[in-house]
Design a protein that fits this description.
Layout lengths: L4 E6 L7 H12 L8 E6 L2 H6 L26 H13 L9 E7 L5 E7 L3 H14 L3 E4 L15 E8 L8 H22 L8 E11 L11 E3 L16 E5 L4 E3 L7 E3 L13 E10 L2 H8 L2
Parallel strand pairs: 1-2, 1-3, 3-6, 4-5, 5-7
Antiparallel strand pairs: 4-6, 7-12, 8-9, 9-10, 11-12
Helix pairs in contact: 1-5, 4-5, 4-6
């Protein structure tokens, strides 16, 4: 296995401050026993972090795009230029190449500690399986959403997001900081165990596969005209079935879930997603059998 560097990114969103604190604490305490794998640490969006806002011009975690219509050399957005810098510096062909990227985030939703992966890359499944096996974390598989693309970890051969909440923006929470520190400190150890065949992946993964998103009720002007129903607050990862309440509008009318297929919601009421017209996203559960290919591709870096 030739994993030599893991990129640890905090502050991709400038008002998510707990990951930055956790990384700084970890750096001060870190010992030299790194199992031959170095960490590279970077604040993803330092300008937004300095101002305590999510981003300056556009969402950095939607700015890692490759398309015919995207000229990365002629864009005035701060985050676009920052994305280019991060890839040029730490991408697999960069000046300090990292094989894996771990992007640390917090959410105002009651997501607990969870893993987010994008698409069905074997290396991502392998790394997510290692962490799920150790910590029992739920996995949110985000795919097939054309409205949301350009995520940071997609620009690396292997990468995943650690998402922890609920915590308010720009508010420090020591418990959440501790959770980040635990996961960061465990990464190299788990990879080393896999490399030396001291650990096996679980036979299967339970993942929550992204199906779509639900907007708030809106009036004829397009303004929000409803709030998340009290029975739905803090119920991330818990099944919604036909007839369950979703929203309570300004007239006191309950908006219910009307479809036959049960769903599992995530990011319920995430503050930052209001601008994206998302009150919650919804998923279906899928059991994925582990494959030897995952480990083989992970070992072939």
């Amino acid at each position: 296995m030739t994993v030599q560097r893991i990129l640890i990114v905090s502050g991709t969103h400038g008002n998510e401050i707990n990951p930055v604190w956790a990384v700084n604490q970890f750096i001060r305490k870190e010992n030299s026993l790194n199992n031959g794998i170095d960490y590279e640490y970077i604040i993803g969006n330092p300008a937004a972090y300095e101002k305590g806002c999510r981003y300056i011009d556009v969402d950095l975690n939607r700015s890692f795009k490759e398309s015919e219509n995207f000229d990365k050399h002629k864009n005035s957005f701060y985050e676009t230029n920052r994305a280019n810098f991060l890839v040029d510096e730490f991408g697999i062909d960069g000046s300090k190449p990292c094989q894996i990227a771990i992007d640390l985030h917090t959410t105002t939703a009651n997501m607990g500690t969870s893993i987010v992966i994008y698409g069905r890359r074997s290396k991502d499944f392998c790394l997510a399986a290692l962490l799920q096996n150790k910590f029992g974390l739920p996995i949110y598989l985000h795919e097939k959403d054309k409205a949301q693309t350009g995520f940071l970890v997609e620009a690396w051969p292997c990468g995943l997001v650690i998402e922890i909440g609920a915590v308010a923006q720009n508010f420090y929470d020591q418990n959440i900081i501790n959770r980040f520190s635990l996961i960061i400190s465990s990464l190299r150890e788990e990879i080393d165990k896999l490399k030396n065949k001291l650990i096996e992946l679980p036979k299967e993964l339970v993942v929550h596969v992204h199906q779509g998103s639900i907007d708030y009720p809106r009036d004829e002007k397009g303004d929000i005209d409803g709030i998340i129903h009290p029975e739905r607050i803090n119920q991330d990862w818990k099944m919604i079935k036909k007839g369950d309440p979703l929203f309570l509008d300004s007239q006191g009318i309950i908006h219910k879930y009307e479809w036959d297929q049960s769903i599992w919601p995530v990011f319920i009421g995430e503050v930052a997603y209001k601008e994206k017209k998302i009150a919650m996203s919804y998923t279906k559960k899928e059991v994925i059998c582990s494959k030897k290919q995952w480990v083989q591709e992970f070992e072939s870096f």
